[in-house]
Every structure is written in structure tokens, then in C-alpha cells.
């Protein structure tokens, strides 16, 4: 499984969405993406990619697209 597949699978499972819906996912704009889901999402991403988000990273992760960019730029994960 590629890194982008892992990343997408996390979001698809967490929010029960399809590939087409991924890019529209955003914190507090997606009904299921509340504060509790946010913490679970962070934990899933950390586990899948063996990362440790700091507090700023957790607050910065406000959408699927921002998370994808964070992984690529800050954590040097090839997506």
C-alpha cells in the first residue's frame, strides 16, 4: 500500500466517505469531524506514518488537503 493510499484510507474509514469526497473534508465543516474525531484522526495518522505531531501540527490539521501538505513538507512523507 502506498503512502497516499494509507492517508486516504484513514480519512475514508474515519468519515465514511468515498475518494471523490476526500478533498472537501474539513474540520468542523464535515459533520463527523468534531473535536473527538480530530484527536482520533491525529492518532491514526501518527500511527500509520510513525510520526509525532506537536501541538501546532494538531491545530494546523484543519482539512484533508492541509494534512496532505503537512505530511509532504513538514514530515517529508512522499505521497
Name the CATH homologous superfamily: ACP-like
Quick one: how many beta strands?
0
Portion in helices: 55-70%
User: Structural class, from helix and strand content?
Assistant: mainly alpha
So what's the overall shape? globular
Strand composition percent: under 5%
Count every helix, treating DSSP H or I runs of 4 or more residues as helices. Answer: 4
Order of helices and strands: HHHH
Task: Round the Cα radius of gyration to an integer and report it.
Answer: 11 Å
What does the model show?
The protein has 79 residues and is mainly alpha-helical. The chain has a single domain, classed as ACP-like (Non-ribosomal Peptide Synthetase Peptidyl Carrier Protein, Chain A, Orthogonal Bundle). It is 56% helix and 0% strand. It has four helices and no strands. Helix 1 packs antiparallel against helix 2. It starts with a helix and ends in a 6-residue tail after the last helix. 13% of the residues are buried. The model has no long low-confidence stretch (mean pLDDT 97).
Short descriptors:
mainly alpha, Non-ribosomal Peptide Synthetase Peptidyl Carrier Protein, Chain A, 79 residues, 4 helices
Briefly say what this structure is.
The protein is mostly helical.
Set out the fold topology:
Blueprint: H1 3-15, H2 35-49, H3 55-60, H4 64-73
Helix pairs in contact: 1-2
Amino acid at each position: 500500500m502506498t503512502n497516499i493510499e494509507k492517508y486516504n484510507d484513514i480519512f475514508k474509514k474515519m468519515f465514511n466517505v468515498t475518494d471523490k469526497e476526500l478533498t472537501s473534508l474539513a474540520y468542523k465543516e464535515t459533520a463527523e469531524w468534531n473535536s473527538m474525531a480530530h484527536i482520533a484522526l491525529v492518532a491514526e495518522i501518527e500511527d500509520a506514518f510513525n510520526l509525532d505531531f506537536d501541538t501546532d501540527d494538531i491545530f494546523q490539521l484543519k482539512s484533508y488537503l492541509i494534512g496532505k501538505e503537512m505530511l509532504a513538507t513538514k514530515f517529508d512523507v512522499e505521497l
